[in-house]
Amino acid sequence: MNKLRRSARLVDMTQHLLARPHKLIPLTYFAEQYGAAKSSISEDLSIIKELFETEGIGLLKTVAGAAGGVKYIPQMNKEVARKAINKLKEKLEGPGRLLPGGYLYMADLLGDPEALAEIGKVFASIFAETAADYVMTVETKGIPLAYAAAAYLNVPVVIVRRYSKVTDGSVVSINYVSGSSKRIQTMSLARRSLPENSKVLIIDDFMKAGGTIQGMIDLLAEFKAEVVGVGVLMETSDVEERLVDEYVSLLKMKEMDVRDKEIKLELGNRFV
Q1: What is the tens place of the pLDDT at every residue in 80-103?
Q2: Helices and strands (DSSP H and E) totals, the chain
């Protein structure tokens, strides 16, 4: 690359860091890329670090030593996250959201890039220190949320299937008890999709009694994987016994009036 003026260099460095969260980038990379001295690169990074922290974009961590460098860690402080989830709460409480049978319509929000980016950053901020190797979810509604969180954590997504496919190759399947219906169901994961002893973050859209999440935890045990966190967008409050104890929820369904098609939500345990 041709030698850039400092203003252009700052823009390019910022873009490079934002596109590679949680990745350690050596200072020598930037120095060679821009034909600049390491001291100049360090000064540039100090400016970017101050901007990131002032604007709530995230943290810029410097690792010293020969193998060191700089790493961008996306962060959304708790108050900013609270405002973002409150905004989502208001949309979900809007008229026409409750469908026949007591189901909540969320497809439009789970397809909205801006809303997904905010939810993903909230989850990534909560679980930033878990050092997760993978984000796991079960098909199908949890998939957009898992990818949103994984994008900020910069790790792959692993999708658990209800029914295995020929294209999955060899799979591991387990039976689990659905927490709400008490029915025996099956979930599967391709063997080659997850190396043994991986650290896995579970993300899902909705949790009642937690049977599906407990099923994923049991499935991960077959891979000798470590569950480093569980995050759900929404949980219900009218559950006698929860199968999962350790989890983070962003929203909680407090009341549901099926006749008038109205629901009342509150913030989840993350904001208590």
Answers
A1: 999 999 999 999 998 888 888 778
A2: 8, 12
Q: CA triplet 256, 257, 263: central angle to 5 degrees?
A: 45
Q: If pLDDT is split at 50, 70 and 90, which confidence band does 181 have? A: low
Q: How far apart are CA 257 and CA 96, in angstroms?
A: 12
Domain boundaries, the chain: 6-73, 78-271
The top-scoring range by mean pLDDT among 66-75, 116-125, 157-166, 249-258 is 116-125
| Main-chain dihedrals φ then ψ at residue 208, nearest 5 degrees | -100, -95
State how far the Cα of 37 lies from the Cα of 27, in Å rounded to an integer: 10
**Residue 18: Cβ-neighbour burial (10 angstroms; 0-12, 13-18, 19+):** middle
Strands 103-104 and 98-99, sheet pairing: antiparallel
d(CA 9, CA 127): 31
Question: Higher pLDDT residue, 92 or 140?
Answer: 92
Residue 148: CB atoms within 10 A of its CB come to 25
Candidate CATH numbers 2.60.120.10, 1.10.10.10, 3.40.50.1980, 2.30.36.70; the one for domain 6-73:
1.10.10.10
Contacting residues for 22 by C-beta, under 8 A, at least 6 apart: 71, 72, 73, 128, 153, 154, 155
Helix (H, G, I), strand (E, B) or coil at 174: strand
pTM > 0.90:
yes
Is residue 31 a contact partner of residue 9, using CB atoms and an 8 Å limit?
Answer: no
Confirm or reject CATH 3.30.750.200 for domain 78-271, answering yes or no: no
